[in-house]
Design goal:
single chain, mainly beta, four-stranded antiparallel beta sheet, 0% helix
Length: 113
């Protein structure tokens, strides 16, 4: 069974930083491209960033480019999202997912003063 568990969310002030982690199990993590998605209050699910299976290629939504960094540790079966210069509009539930595949339970990120 594919399991993806995101954690690391919380309440942070504007301009602050957070690191989200996603522990993966039940599949060959190192063979899958992975992605982060988010759903802001009252809005549809939005793609944030993706990384290829080896970690050498990454892409970002324009709204987070230059502030967020996606990485992965295939030895630990873990995906990360490093978030800097956070803005109130980054407030959302963040999910990790296989590209075009399973999605895990999310973690809440709230950016507020």
């Amino acid at each position: 069974e594919v399991q993806l568990q995101a954690c690391g969310g919380g309440l942070v002030q504007p301009g602050g930083s957070l690191r989200l982690s996603c522990a993966a199990s039940g599949f060959a993590f190192s063979s899958y491209g992975m992605t982060w998605l988010r759903r802001a209050p009252g809005k549809e699910l939005e793609w944030v960033s993706s990384i290829n299976s080896g970690g050498g290629s990454t892409v970002y939504h324009a709204s987070v480019k230059g502030r967020f960094t996606i990485t992965r540790d295939n030895a630990k079966n873990t995906l990360y999202l490093h978030m800097n210069s956070l803005k109130p509009e980054d407030t959302a539930v963040y999910y990790c997912a296989q590209i075009a595949g399973a999605r895990g339970r999310g973690t809440q990120v709230t950016v507020s003063s």
